[in-house]
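STRUCTURE REQUEST FORM
Protein name: Translation machinery-associated protein 16
Source organism: Sander lucioperca
Requested output: structure tokens
Priority: standard
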Amino acid sequence: MIVCFQPKAQKGKGKAPEKVVHPYSRKAAYLAREEIRLKKKERCENKKKLNRCEKLLWFQEQLDPEKTTYTRKDACDVVERYLRRFDSELEQIELMNGIKGRQGRLHGAREAVIKQTIERERVQYEGIGFEIPDIINAKNLKTFREWNGDLKKLPNIKLRKVSNKDLETKNEKEEKHEEAEDDNEDDEDDLEDEQENVIFL
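Status: completed
Returned output:
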């Protein structure tokens, strides 16, 4: 009697097919939430980049083509102009709302957003410092001038924080230095007077 043995079928070494997720399962709900979160994060990052780009372009427009270097005081002056960039818009809103007989306040939401933005930026400028493109460093200033607004090149733009506290500290130091120089001059004058008195005696 001849018995034939069939060889065992070898198990496939390929990847197992992915399990189909049930549309109403907890995993499906988790994946949907994760996709929404990632899309929202991407939108926020893009919006953040666009806002930063808009801010940098504003500063680029303010650069004096004749200037090759900027002092800390110059940078503070530019920041002050930046903090007043909404002045004309706020004036227009105030004029429209000042018309007699008008009921309700127009552009109230826009006005509130502007004022909150300015207040937040002012607090930064008077506190830890307001972030601007580094126009004080000559090399970084040159790079910033050559930037064409490309979002991909944003990381190449060096930033630095500027605070009016730094300016006040510098002014105080200059005043103290001037006072010290005046005191030295007074001491020298007194010494000369004493020497003259000795000569005449």
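Reviewer notes: The CA atoms of residues 80 and 158 lie 20 Å apart. The radius of gyration is 34 Å.
Form closed.
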